[in-house]
């Protein structure tokens, strides 16, 4: 075997079940690459289409609108959603996220904007966060009805905007809530932030992390892999307890969903404590799902607990 062949097949970095990086630099994603087209979903009567936000950076989104009463007789709240996948895998176009947005948009009667940001390791964190900020600014560019997208111009209620996400996407949603508080988007009112199994971390282990040394080591390693320039696990991007601007969160309501068996569970509860200790004046609720693990609702969306989780998000928006 010559040296070229050996570097093609030799693995330099392996994160099951997410990806493999080979010694020659080739990256193989192991999940989250299936895609489904947009269109009218017959089950929920929600229509979707894909839009370009920043062509040179490859930032785009899938937009959703309920067709039950179309055109809507009143303006609809806007939900801007960020997918999970450790900042590495997944897209808004994968079947599980497409189905999730169809269901949330239908039940909550909102316009959905599911954001496609650039992913690590080709585009290290915080590129995902900057792309997501660009996407939120793009949404805000429709205030006044002069944007490029008719659904937002005609039917979007910019006084009722929500940001949400799961896992890495929840991390991004929290970051954006703080950034809106710092930089403002005039005319856009951030009503609430919903974080599902948020990917937060820190150097000091919390209770459930201390009992799972192997898992925690992997999370530390994963974070450094996705953000090579990081100062470590107390970087404010991954550890909200180290972010001096946490109290600037721009919304009045936060929902945090955690799962009993999830290694990241205590980080969700800790986020509530941190918010309450800060000078943020809003209300934060944590909902814990028993007997479930990280993003269980993505792998088994039809189970009773997944349906209950969906309804919690919907009632938070409504």
UniProtKB/TrEMBL annotation:
Molecular function per GO: hydrolase activity
Limits of the Alpha/beta hydrolase fold-3 domain: 79-298
Classification via InterPro entries: AB_hydrolase_3, AB_hydrolase_fold, Carboxylest/Gibb_receptor, Lipase_GDXG_put_SER_AS
SUPFAM superfamilies referenced in this protein's UniProt entry, alphabetically: alpha/beta-Hydrolases
Classification via PROSITE patterns: LIPASE_GDXG_SER
Location of the active site: 167
Recorded superkingdom: Eukaryota
Gene3D superfamilies: alpha/beta hydrolase
Annotated Pfam families: Abhydrolase_3
Family: Belongs to the 'GDXG' lipolytic enzyme family.
Protein name: Putative carboxylesterase 2
